[in-house]
Write a structure and sequence with these properties.
11 helices, 20% strand, alpha/beta, globular, single chain, 2-enoyl-CoA Hydratase, Chain A, domain 1, 255 residues
Length: 255
């Protein structure tokens, strides 16, 4: 089922909402194209203060389309990695403060989108992680680079090598999310954080975001290139085909 993305803007706050009939949101090629269009609209809104990425249903975002992943070759995998990285970098470069509201499972590409945002807010039912190694792959849309940059190599190794989805409590403990709220009060907590941000100076926000990106390191393009090449190289080994096929056949992979 295709995932739709709706954009609503009011009072200098944009809300980007993922919706699917079955409540499981997938970042398919079609959805990523739509996300690129939405980001383009956001980039043109000069007076925008806050962008909230949210979803409705059983997941926040469950990741990429496994059928599409299974069909990739080393050459097309490199293209898909670079395109996905480009989307996430555009989110990171938005002048507005970006918030991701994670109410449920946030895996793979969903986690990579959250890592591109300024603030990650979680409900108690949220689960978050990078399970790509269970498919014989690695995070290729900035997840490998950003976990190291934001949290250090220890947490990056844990998330990526194990592929586990952390509970909201554990994600808060290790710093992967910034706040945790009971499910029943989650939307109100997100709105309260938005209201708080609107009381701060917009010029200061823009300068802080620019400086933080500089302080994180100036060579992110080279790091993302290395990540994309490594993602593509996964398709030169048999594990990617076995991992994606096993996922679709609902069986453990035979690595």
């Amino acid at each position: 089922m295709p995932t739709s993305i709706d954009l609503a803007v009011a009072d200098r706050v944009a809300r980007v909402t993922f919706r699917t009939d079955n409540g499981v949101h997938i970042l398919s090629a079609e959805t990523r194209e739509r996300l690129g269009e939405v980001i383009g609209e956001l980039e043109r809104m000069r007076d925008l203060r806050v962008v909230v990425f949210q979803s409705e249903g059983r997941t926040f975002i469950a990741g990429a389309d496994i059928h599409e992943l299974r069909a990739l070759t080393p050459e097309t995998a490199l293209q898909v990695a670079r395109q996905g990285q480009g989307l996430m970098q555009r989110v990171a470069a938005l002048d507005a403060v970006t918030i991701v509201a994670i109410h449920a499972a946030c895996a793979g590409g969903g986690c990579e989108l959250s890592l591109a945002c300024d603030l990650r807010l979680a409900a108690a039912s949220a689960r978050i992680g990078l399970p790509e190694t269970s498919l014989g792959l690695l995070p290729g849309w900035g997840g490998t680079v950003q976990t190291v940059r934001l949290f250090g190599s220890a947490l990056a190794r844990r998330l990526i090598l194990t592929g586990e989805l952390l509970t909201a409590d554990e994600a808060l403990r290790v710093g992967l999310v910034d706040s945790l709220t009971p499910d029943e009060g989650f939307r109100a907590a997100v709105d309260a954080r938005v209201a708080q941000i609107l009381t701060r100076g917009p010029s200061a926000h823009r300068m802080v975001k620019h400086l933080v990106r500089r302080f994180e390191g100036l060579d992110i393009d080279a790091e993302l290139t290395a990540e994309a090449v490594a993602f593509a190289d996964c398709y030169r080994a048999p594990e990617a085909a076995e991992g994606t096929t096993a996922f679709l056949e609902k069986r453990p992979p035979k690595f």
